[in-house]
Design brief:
By secondary structure, this protein is an alpha/beta fold. The protein has two helices and eight strands; from the N terminus they run E-H-E-E-E-E-H-E-E-E. The strands form two sheets. The chain has a four-stranded mixed sheet with strand order 1-4-3-2, with helices on one face. The chain has a four-stranded mixed sheet with strand order 5-8-7-6, with no helix packed on it. A hairpin with a 4-residue loop joins strand 2 and strand 3. It starts with 11 loop residues before the first strand and ends with a strand. The relative contact order is 0.18.
């Protein structure tokens, strides 16, 4: 087969305003595994490679004074990052126990599945979607 053949999303890159706060959020609260990290002195920047269930998924970056940008789900650009869960109620209870607020649960009108939104430490909209 010729031409462009995408096989999957390789990773998502996130720039955090406070690398260490976001690293704790993604590893300790959301359950990602830190596969490795490096401080890049020339860029005054941290880069962490995070895995979900053994699969390389996120790159977490820091940069000095990154510009703010709108990140509400309806802003132009990345709308949100969604994660599948098997038990939405348990996932919401876990986040709530870690002082992470979730929006009211909604039902996807096309699939009948339940979902909710919450935010990372920088306000990046994240979604939990019950599989």
């Amino acid at each position: 087969m010729s031409g462009l053949t995408l096989t999957k999303v390789h990773h998502v890159a996130i720039i955090a305003s406070d690398y260490h706060v976001s690293k704790v959020f993604y590893t300790k609260i959301l359950g990602f595994t830190l596969m490795g990290e490096v401080y890049r002195e020339a860029r005054d920047s941290w880069k962490g490679d995070l895995a979900l269930n053994g699969a390389y998924t996120l790159e977490l970056f820091s940069f000095p004074f990154p510009p703010a940008r709108p990140s509400h789900p309806e802003a132009c650009g990345l709308r949100h990052l969604a994660f599948s869960v098997t038990d939405l109620d348990a996932a919401i209870a876990h986040l709530t126990a870690h002082q992470v607020s979730c929006e009211p649960v909604r039902t996807d009108p096309l699939t009948g599945k339940l979902f909710t939104f919450f935010s990372d430490p920088d306000g990046l909209p994240l979604e939990l979607y019950q599989a």
